[in-house]
Amino acid sequence: MPMPWLLLFSLVLGSRPWVFSLEKKVESKDEARCSQGLSCQFMEVLCLLESAEPTKEPVLVPTKLQTEVVLRCREESDCVPCVRVTTLNLTVQEPRKEDRDETGLQEDTELTSHPWPRNESLQAKVILSFQAYLTDRCIWVMVEVPAAMVQPGQNVGSVVFDCFEAPVGGEVQILSYTQSPNQKKLNHTLQLPDCFRPEMQDSVQSCWGIEWSGVLPSFNISTEGDTIQMVLDASIKQNYVLSVYWDQTRDSRIDRFHGVLTGPQNITLNQTDLVPCLCIQVHSNVSDSLRNTYCPFREDSRAQQNLWSHSKLKFLRTTSLSWQVEAPCPLSAETVLCWKLMDSETCHPLPVPKLLQNVTVNKFQDLPLKTLHPNVCVQVWSRGKLHIQECPLEDILDPLRDDILVLETWGPQETQSFCAMETSGCTLLPSMAHTRAALLGKQLLQDLQSGQCMQLWNDTGVLWVCSLQKYVHKRWVLAWLGFLVLAACILLLLLANRGGVKGAARGRRALLLYCPDHAGFERLVGTLATALAQLRLPVALDLWHRRELSALGPLAWFHAQRRRALQEGGLLVLLFSPGAAALCAQWLRAEAPAGTGPFAASLSCVLPDFLEGRAPGRYLVACFEELLPARDVPELFRAVPVFSLPSQMPAFLRALAGPGTRRREAFGAQAPRVAQSLRPALDECLRRGATSRL
What we know:
By secondary structure, the chain is of the alpha+beta class. Residues 1-19, 98-113, 209-214, 498-505 and 690-694 have low confidence and may be disordered.
C-alpha cells in the first residue's frame, strides 16, 4: 500500500540546483586545442555527413566527451551562454582485416599497405556537431598523431573546443565522430541555465526584458487522498500562464490543465493524473517568454503504478498482425512473445532471445514470426515484473488451438535436438517422461520430418507448431496409461512400506550449479543430470529451464530454485571445474566475477553461506577428477562433503538419496550405470582440454 506523502516546494518553477558559478570568458574567438603530442587545426563546415570509403589504415574514434557551460562576454554585462567541449578523448582503432568485397569474397589480408607497427603519422578529421533550437553548427578539427603514438587501442590524447554559443534555458545536443568508415558517434545532451539564475540576470542582456520581479509563484503539492492539490502563492498583480500536462515526447504532450492565472490559485487534479511524466510549466503571459518546466514525479512509486493502470495493449490485423502499447508516458519495458496453452492461464515466453523487443509507446510493431497463430500472445515486462499480457481476440485470429510447440536446436557438432513446450517445461523428444508430449514423441518427430508441422520462427533456433487433432481419439489411451501409472505408484509405495521393494525410491531434490566452461562441459553436466533424473531424483538445471531463465534473469531464477530445494529438504550441488574455481577466487578477492549465468549470479548467496557456516546440510561439492582434482577445490568449500567423480559415485548417490538405509543402498547400486553413462561426455571434455572460457 503506497504511503501518502506531502511534497513541499518553496522554489521557482524551472529553477535548477546549480552549485558552481559560471566562468566568464572575455573572448569572442573560437579556438580548438589538442593535448601534448598532437597537432590540430579547425574549420567551420556545413552540417553534412560525408560518406567514408573502407580503409585498411588505422583510424581515430572518439571515446569520451565532456562539456561545461561558460559565459562568453564582450563586456562585463554583455554575455551569452556558451558550451565548451572540455574533453574529447581519441583512441586509435585497428583497421578491420575481414571486410568482404562486393562479390562476397574475403579480401587478402596481405594487401594491407601499412602493417603494424606503422612508420607514418596518422591524420584524422574529428567532427563536432552542435544542435539547439533553430540552430545547427558543425566544425571539424584536423588532428595529426605522431607515428610513435599510433598503436591499436591506445588513447592518444584529447581535443578541447571553445565554444558553441547556445540559447538561454534551452537544451542542446553535441555529436562527435571521426570521418572513418564505422563513424562511431558520441551523443551528449545538456540543459542550459535559464534567466532566473542571478548571474544570468546580471550578465545576459536577453534576460533583462523579463517583466517579473524575479520571483515566480511558490507552491505546495499534496498527493494525499483521491486528488492532487496544487496551492500556488503569487502576487495579486502577477499574471502568468500555467500548464500541467503529460510529457509523452519532445513534440507531443497531453494537457491536464492549462490557463492564464493572476494571483494565488488552487488547482485540483484527479489522482489518476499522477504519472511519472506529469510536468508543470509556467511562464510570463507575454509572447516569446521563457518557459520553465518541472517534472517532480518521475521516481514516485504511486505514479509508476498509475502509469501501468493507464497502459494497455491492442492488436491490429492488416496484411500481418501488429500490436501497440498505449500509455501516457514512455515506458522502460520489453515485449515478449509467449505461447498460451489451451485450458491453461500460463503463457510460456517463447525460448528465442531475439523475440525480445523494447517497447515504443503508441507505435504499432509487427509480429516477427513467419506464420500467425492464435496461441502466440504478447507480454510486457518491466524490471523483472509482468505488467500486461494480451492474446489476439477471436475476431482477429482463430480461437486457441490444442497444438503443441516444438523447439529445434543444434549442438556444437551440428547435432539436432527437439523439445516440446508443456506446462511442466520443455520436454525433450524422445523422452521417457510421463507427459503428453513424451508419450507422443515418436509421432511428433515423424510429423516434423514429413513436413506436417508449421514453422513459426527460423533464426537462432526453429519453432514448429504441430497439430494434435489427429491424436484426439487416442486420448482415452493416455487416460488409461495415467491410471495404470498411478496404480503402480500406489502399489510400489505400499510394498516399500512393508519392506518388500528393493528398487530405487524417490531421492531429495538437487539444484545443480556449475560454470559453463565450454559446450563439452555443459554436455557432461546435462548427462549427469539426466542420469540422476532417471533415478527419480528431482533435478533442477538451468539448461532445462531456459524459458524461466530468460523471463526472470539468472539471479531471480537461482533464488527461486534454491528456496524450493531447501523447503523440500533438498541440496545444492556445486560441480567444480577450472572455470568455477577461478570465479570463486575472483569473488573472494573482492573482484567482480567475469562470468555470467546462474553460477556467477549465485556466488553472492552461496559464498556467504560457506563463510558464515550455513552450508553443512544444505550443500554438496563434486568435481570430475580427470578435469579438476579434489585437492584443487578451494579450501572454503571443504566444509561440506567433497566427492570425486566418477570414482566416488556410490558415495555421491547415497548422499543425494538422503536418510533411509534401503534408499541409500538402492541409489549406491546404480553407481556403475551412472558412471558408464558419463564416459562419452567426459572423454569429449578431455579432448577439449577442459579449458574454461571465462
